[in-house]
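Design job #97: recover the sequence.
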């Protein structure tokens, strides 16, 4: 669509070339000349924005960037949610194929030696490598790519919509359609009843050699490093970047946008709410309480070793 057509469909003002052709949305990390990029905060302004087909931003930010093709909004994230619906691809309903015993979409590519259980659904444009085993009632959504020697347990869902939403002025939630997909490397084992969400724009990535237990949720835009092991009931929130050879214990919760170093061990039931920058074993467990009280308690806990040293020196 042309920039002027996009603006008209969304009911917003635009600046720049009305005939600029736009084919979709790109992230700030992967800017494309025919795609729209969201800039919701000044910290995301960069020289590379000049290469984007258009920018979604407020008027304040528009005056500070070097791209003249602008879709203007006082709530750029809300406009981005509407854009995602506009560019959401049409996906066909999978049809049962009696020869393969699969429900198949269009343009599916399957390698050699695929074994499957009953009730497997594979949507449009999925690519599956060689020697892959998919158990009963697995759903693989459109555009997912899976490498060689991968095992997927019963009931797992790969490429489902992520939990991305924007609240509007009426306090109503507006869903962001996730236009990315999921890439799974080779020699990966995925347990039963796991959910791996597709990326908002860029892909969610599970790298080579990763092993994942049952009942694990991996949210949109997450990257899991090579040879990482994740135990049951772990939840990893959006846009986390987990290092190589991490070992994540059962029921660990990792909040959004966390990064971990390579060779990190996280003890079971820990909550990870800040980056882990060095290899080692980490534990973080605290009882739930009023948030203001929790912050005060946490502050003192981090100082206990220093307090103990002072008291020892004073021989109290």
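Job complete. Output follows.
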């Amino acid at each position: 669509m042309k920039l002027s057509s996009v603006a008209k469909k969304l009911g917003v003002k635009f600046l720049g070339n009305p005939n600029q052709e736009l084919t979709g949305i790109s992230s700030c990390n992967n800017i494309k000349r025919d795609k729209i990029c969201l800039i919701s905060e000044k910290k995301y302004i960069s020289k590379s924005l000049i290469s984007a087909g258009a920018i979604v931003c407020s008027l304040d930010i528009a005056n500070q960037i070097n791209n003249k093709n602008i879709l203007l909004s006082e709530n750029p994230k809300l406009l981005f949610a509407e854009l995602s619906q506009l560019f959401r691809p049409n996906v066909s309903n999978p049809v049962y194929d009696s020869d393969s015993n699969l429900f198949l979409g269009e343009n599916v590519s399957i390698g050699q030696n695929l074994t499957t259980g009953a009730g497997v659904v594979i949507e449009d444009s999925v690519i599956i490598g060689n020697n892959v085993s998919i158990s009963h009632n697995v759903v693989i959504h459109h555009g997912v790519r899976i490498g060689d020697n991968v095992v997927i347990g019963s009931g797992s869902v790969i490429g489902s919509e992520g939990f991305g939403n924007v609240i509007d002025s009426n306090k109503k939630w507006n869903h962001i359609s996730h236009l990315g997909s999921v890439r799974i490397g080779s020699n990966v084992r995925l347990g039963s009843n796991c959910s791996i969400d597709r990326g908002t724009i860029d892909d969610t990535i599970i790298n080579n050699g990763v092993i994942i237990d049952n009942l694990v949720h991996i949210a949109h835009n997450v990257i899991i490093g090579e040879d990482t092991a994740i135990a049951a009931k772990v939840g990893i929130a959006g846009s986390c970047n987990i290092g190589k050879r991490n070992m994540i214990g059962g029921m660990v919760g990792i909040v959004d946008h966390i990064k971990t170093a390579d060779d990190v061990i996280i003890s079971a039931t820990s909550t990870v709410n800040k980056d882990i920058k060095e290899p080692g074993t980490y534990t973080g467990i605290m009882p739930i309480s009023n948030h203001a009280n929790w912050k005060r308690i946490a502050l003192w806990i981090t100082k206990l070793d220093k307090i103990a040293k002072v008291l020892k020196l004073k021989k109290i």
